[in-house]
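Section 3.1: Structural characterization of target chains.
Under the original work plan, the team committed to producing a structural model for every single-chain target entering the pipeline before any wet-lab resources were allocated. The record below documents one such target. The sequence was received from the expression subgroup and is listed exactly as submitted; it comprises 161 residues.
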Amino acid sequence: MENWYPGFEKKIVDQLKGSNVKDLRFFRIEEYLRNAERTDAQASSCRACYALRNEIEQTADQVAKAVQQPGAERRRIDSLQSRLSDHLRKEHGFYPPSYHTYLQSVYWTVGFMALAFLLTVLFPEVEKAVFYSPAFAIGVITGQVIGGKKDRKVRDSNKIL
């Protein structure tokens, strides 16, 4: 299988020369190129990556138009980028920078808040803030610690989206 990414990247970079830097950041062109490179690397062993790679190739000529003016091309590129990120996250273990930290913080906070609710039911005479305030803080801190460890492993294995 040939390595098509270098030619694809050159084509996109040439098209976008002179574009506004803010627009390129807003439309996550760097992320799009990184994900295209990862898709190329996985295409030989993953059918979905191969199909996504073919779709990326088809949209190569439309990226500059999508960045410069709203319309169907922009929606198509955004949709492709979302599907690409979802596939890389679910199937190949690539995650956004603080994915696990945020996710674990939500889970642990909800869990500790449920525990605080049970304690308010068991001890109705005690002020509710006595249970809810520490539960919220402990949940967020626990999620930050546990999620931070998982995010560090993702960063160390170089699997950041």
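Helices lie at 5-15, 21-26, 29-42, 47-58, 63-68, 72-92, 99-122, 129-156.
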